[in-house]
Amino acid sequence: MSHFSLLTKGNPKTIKGQKKGYLTWILHLAPYTLSGKNVCPKATPGCIAACLNLAGRGGMFKEGAPINSIQKARIRKTRAFWADRDAFMLELAADIQRAVNYTEKKGMIPVFRLNGTSDLSWEKYTVGETDANIFELFGDTQFYDYTAVLGRKNIPANYHLTFSRKESNDADVAQALLQGMNVAAVYDQIPAGMYSADDNDLRFLDGAQGMMGLKVKGHRAKKDYSGFVIRLKTVV
Question: What is the pTM assigned to this prediction?
Answer without folding.
Answer: 0.90
